[in-house]
């Protein structure tokens, strides 16, 4: 009997890959291994609707879905190693699973700041358990310190303000989201947070935290020389690919490609025969030949589709890949199409209160479009991002 396809990581990318394999006609054994106790769930609402208490359940598929699709889902089970020669994956329980193909979909782990004292009230946000712990402490009378004004920090600041909590956000760079969208657009996002009452301090870092006699965080010492009284702290300083369990497997890992992770070809094949990688942990080779990780929801689903078709040898219609992500902050949806990068020329063509639209260009060619509250205008640019288009063409239309 042929061994099953084993997917390690029961998050969005793992689940979508299982679904796409079935959709593409795969009829053999399918095992989905996840170290969390929960059915696969959606993470984007954790910093938004879930944090504001508007939704409680972000489960992606009901439990009946798995037997129905003949997906053998094993929760609360971590994979601890792979032997690609024997085609076997080792589980923490001591059991081992033979596989025909193995798919690595283990996502990211949030980075911590190593020198902080261990105090209650100090949080990170990646998992449902993290979100439950954080939500239980955010009240209208709380003051929260957000360390890092990336997506997690900015979305939480917006959710905390919606609840009525005070938010202090510190960011060593010149603006929020500077390393993703650059400082030009970052300044527009900073303006929005300040208008909403966030005490945003750019060019400022966290030095240390102080606790009270019970071991609970009470104050934060900042690099601007001030000390602020806080009830809770969220460290949102990025994440690292969850690849520790692959150490010694011989599967190539990289720290040199953009963001590290498991490098693959353009359909998810790793350096080891029969081993694939998908989602946030995977550094897929892009059109320019660079292996690059993309930590976004839409990309996980698109990769799952491509990987499943390639693994099964099924033809799929060629479609141009135009990367997309969104972030909900206050009453606007910030959306990005293409590959806007720090260092691109930025043309802000609309700036109406908190709504804005910006075109990014590299050597005169449109590289990305970022908008806030401008869905139609952002989406209209998709065909122009699918083929090289001089940015002047769009500028002429605005
Ligand atoms: C709070 C939050 C908000 C977000 N908001 C947005 C947004 O607004 N827009 C957007 O585009 N993207 C957003 N994202 C990103 C998006 O959720 C991710 O891109 C997506 O979850 C990636 O899916 P994944 O399956 O690769 O990783 P994950 O969802 O992290 O799943 C990986 C799974 O593998 C498990 N695992 C790890 N190691 C092992 C092991 N050894 N054995 C077994 N299981 C293991 C993990 O516990 C986890 O369950 C957000 C993410 C977070 C955390």
Describe the structure.
The strands form 7 sheets. A 5-stranded parallel beta sheet has the order 3-2-1-7-19, with helices on one face. A 5-stranded parallel beta sheet has the order 9-16-10-11-12, with helices on one face. Strands 22-23-26-25-24 form a 5-stranded antiparallel beta sheet. It is α/β, with parallel strands linked by helices. It is globular and about 65 Å long. Bound molecules: flavin-adenine dinucleotide. The site of flavin-adenine dinucleotide (FAD) has 37 residues, from helix 1, helix 6 and strand 22.
How is the secondary structure organized here?
Elements (H helix, E strand, L loop, with lengths): L4 E4 L3 H12 L6 E4 L31 H4 L3 E3 L4 E5 L4 E4 L4 E3 L2 E4 L3 E3 L11 E2 L4 H8 L7 E5 L3 H13 L2 E6 L6 H18 L3 E4 L3 E6 L5 E6 L4 E3 L2 E4 L3 E3 L20 E3 L10 E3 L4 E4 L5 E3 L3 H16 L11 E6 L2 E7 L6 E8 L2 E8 L2 E8 L2 H6 L1 H5 L4 H7 L1
Parallel strand pairs: 1-2, 1-7, 2-3, 7-19, 9-16, 10-11, 10-16, 11-12, 18-20
Antiparallel strand pairs: 4-5, 5-6, 8-17, 13-14, 14-15, 20-21, 22-23, 23-26, 24-25, 25-26
Helix pairs in contact: 1-6
The structure holds flavin-adenine dinucleotide.
Flavin-adenine dinucleotide binds next to helix 1, helix 6 and strand 22.
Q: What proportion of the residues is helical, as a percent range?
A: 10-25%
Shape: globular
Query: Main sheet: which strands, in order across?
Result: 3-2-1-7-19
The fraction of residues assigned to DSSP E strands is 25-35%
Count the strands? 26
Unreliable parts: none
Give the integer mean of the pLDDT values: 96
Q: SS-based structural class? A: alpha/beta
Bound molecules: flavin-adenine dinucleotide
Q: Determine Rg (CA atoms, Å).
A: 22 Å
Query: DSSP helix count?
Result: 9
